[in-house]
Amino acid sequence: MTDSLPPSPISCDLDLARDGAQHGFLRLPWSRDDSAWGAVMIPISVIRNGAGPTALLTAGNHGDEYEGLIALHDLAATLDPAQITGRIIILPAMNAPAFRAGTRTSPIDGGNLNRLFPGRPDGTPTQKIADYVTRHLLPLADCVLDFHSGGRTLDFLPLAACHILPDKALEARCREAVAAFGAPYALQMIEMDAVGMFDTTAEAMGKTFVTTELGGAGTATPRSIAIAKRGLRGFLAQAGILAGDEGATTQAAWPETIWLDMPDGDCFLVSEEEGLIEPLVTLGDPVMRGDVVARIYPFGRSGRMPLSCHARRDGIVMARHVPGLVKPGDCIAVFAVPVS
Ligand SMILES: [Zn+2]
């Protein structure tokens, strides 16, 4: 689909077709004040054992979402090629500059990698990363797992997710892969802002695609990391890449995944004011339409009543705003509906 584009400036120092475990870098040339012929070094690992399916595992698409980063670094450091059939390609910090800076977007060019797919080989550094993944890694993959969490400004119920897709056979495969991930919650969603997402590009190429939101708040917890690690193994077992025993152990971890639905835009509660936020509900709490779920105290002086923020639909709290201050347009909370 992108045959007319020039070659990518990014090089990979691994032979992705070779058996065994290899660890190296994607090298993105980046000439700058402090490094004249410098490069952005993006870690990559490939673990292969003979013919079989290929999984592309990515985290650090946003640089401040840590569960997947930790789970993929752990997998790359510990997985024995003899445990698998086929190939696993691991990019634990896909937007490496953002990861190093501890930010959602790249400090080099302000790029939000998950809004710049399929990318450009002659664009900004972040567009070049997207282009390399689109043209050089996605074509090798049968299935893709892209880890996300809430980052520094949101915290989520731990969930794996797939999308409602026009290709119903692909949609069913994605849903099975989400079930195999086995998180406490699962979500099948319609994206409000799908243009430029890694998900959209991978799904358009017919790849089984799973994404996650596994916590957030700019950190990770032992529980959220355990969910990421076990989910990863369940995903690889279901793909036929990891041996069956590993998968069976994983499946027992969270036997009762609760599926959620986001029926419409009323799931999102957005602040219209700035100030100091007082949350009145927390993750997983049930809410009814009209409930006061947060109050916002205006800046400036004491003695004023706070503004009440009301839920716009029935549901449970799936995500919540993290910082203690809000601005107009900030997402205060996201509500979802459990599916029986
Ligand atoms: Zn993210």
TrEMBL record:
Gene3D superfamilies reported for this sequence: Zn peptidases
Cofactor(s) needed by this chain: Zn(2+)
Matches recorded under SUPFAM superfamilies: Zn-dependent exopeptidases
Pfam families in the cross-refs: AstE_AspA_cat (PF24827)
Domain called Succinylglutamate desuccinylase/Aspartoacylase catalytic: residue spans: 51-237
UniProt cross-references to InterPro entries, sorted A to Z: AstE_AspA_cat (IPR055438), DoeB (IPR014336), N-alpha-Ac-DABA-like (IPR043795), N-alpha-Ac-DABA_deacetylase (IPR053138)
One GO MF term: hydrolase activity, acting on ester bonds
Superkingdom per UniProt: Bacteria
Keywords: Hydrolase, Metal-binding, Zinc
PANTHER family membership: BLL3975 PROTEIN
UniProt name for this protein: N-alpha-acetyl-L-2,4-diaminobutyrate deacetylase
